[in-house]
Design goal:
With 340 residues, the protein is α/β, with parallel strands linked by helices. The chain has three domains: 69 residues, Alpha-Beta Plaits; 68 residues, Met-10+ protein-like domains (GMP Synthetase, Chain A, domain 3), CATH 3.30.300; 170 residues, Vaccinia Virus protein VP39 (Rossmann fold, 3-Layer(aba) Sandwich). Helices cover 26% and strands 33% of the residues. It has ten helices and 17 strands. Strands 13-12-11-14-15-17-16 form a seven-stranded mixed β-sheet. Strand 9 and strand 10 form a beta hairpin. The chain starts with a strand and ends with a strand. This is Class I SAM-dependent methyltransferase. One of its GO terms (molecular function) is methyltransferase activity. InterPro entries: MeTrfase_TRM5/TYW2, SAM-dependent_MTases_sf, TRM5-TYW2-like_MTfase, TRM5/TYW2-like_N, Trm5a/b_N.
Length: 340
């Protein structure tokens, strides 16, 4: 049957599908099909889907399009909603399903429904704490299964991650892709808070030489495994420790610095400036009140440059809202060029 569908490269398929699902635009009556490395995702409103895809394409307008195509009718699939009678909220990370339920009885009910549904799953966990400590990890209640390790696929990369040992957010895939698309082959990049490598690995795949530092030694072990897994180990240096204590080895080195530690990146701006070469772009992440989303970060960067002798011109390239974080607060990113 001829239906409107989004045509997208396979490596962008899950992110695009999730974006369309969040917008309520997926056509659940027809199958997603694939052909020669391209996915065709059925949608209920071609015009609205085109708008969503354009907003998410990150400048790759040739890679994503909406067209009419003959797609097969979908066989009935049992979802948790069908079993529960309501639509539960959950995230998927590989074969792990992540819940965020305050009521343990409700969490158990949802977990049982997920297992009974047609969703492929090995583990169901419920958040038992907020992100805590310098290592940014959570406690989890494992409701189904045993392992908290999974393989997450994102824009053609694979990340092995243990959510009980390291911080990782699949929700930031689109933002990571936005930044990664700016990287050119031959660049030297320093990721100050690298985790398991969701910035490091795709940047290295684009031909950059990348140093990834993290305070969590387990995260650094996974970073090394992921560099091997994705065939970029020769372009990745993984460093365990406080970036303020190890940065001396890369002073005046970086063409690009990633600072994804939103609650306290301002404490590390002087180190970022020390890492910067003659021309360097900082990707500075912050969480601020909507009354002044970007001012604190910009002031912190300009002050750090002044404290270092004022030898850089500072230009804000992009003021970007990543996502809502809390009532009246947003996670934002400043892309800032430093030029001697």
């Amino acid at each position: 049957m001829d239906v409107a569908c989004v045509r997208v490269p396979r490596e962008q398929g899950e992110t695009t599908r999730r974006k369309l699902a969040d917008a309520g635009l997926l056509d659940h009556d027809h199958e997603i099909t694939h052909e020669d490395g391209t996915l065709y995702i059925p949608v209920t409103d071609a015009e609205a889907a085109a708008s969503v895809v354009d907003a998410d394409a990150g400048g790759e307008d040739a890679a994503v399009a909406v067209e009419v195509r003959d797609l097969p009718t979908r066989e009935t699939q049992q979802l948790p909603d069908d079993i529960l009678g309501f639509e539960p909220s959950y995230e998927r990370l590989g074969e792990i399903v992540i819940l965020d339920e305050d009521d343990p009885d409700r969490a158990r009910q949802i977990a049982d429904a997920i297992v009974a549904s047609d969703i492929p799953v090995e583990t169901v966990v419920n958040r038992a704490s907020k992100v805590k400590g310098d290592l940014r990890v959570r406690d989890w209640d494992v409701l189904v299964g045993e392992t908290t390790e999974a393989v997450h696929r994102e824009y053609g990369c694979e990340f092995l991650v243990d959510i009980a040992e390291v911080y990782f957010s699949p929700r930031l895939a689109t933002e990571r892709h936005r930044v990664v698309q700016q990287v050119e082959a031959g660049e030297r990049v320093f990721d100050m808070f690298a985790g398991v490598g969701p910035f490091v690995i795709p940047m290295a795949k684009r031909g950059a030489e990348v140093v990834g530092c993290d305070l969590n030694p387990v995260a650094v072990e996974y970073l090394e495994k992921n560099a091997e897994r994705n065939g970029v180990a020769d372009r990745v240096t993984a460093v365990a420790g406080d970036v303020r204590e190890v940065a001396d080895d890369w002073t005046d080195w970086a063409d690009r610095v990633v600072m994804n530690l939103p609650h306290s990146a301002n404490e590390f701006v002087d180190t970022a400036v020390a890492l910067a070469g003659d021309d360097c772009v900082l990707h500075y992440y912050d969480i601020q009140h909507e009354d002044d989303l970007f001012g604190p970060g910009e002031r912190a960067i300009r002050q750090a440059v002044a404290d270092a002798g004022g030898e850089y011109e500072v230009e804000v390239l992009t003021r970007h809202e990543v996502r809502s974080y809390a009532p009246h607060e947003k996670n934002v990113c400043l892309d800032v060029a430093l030029s001697r």
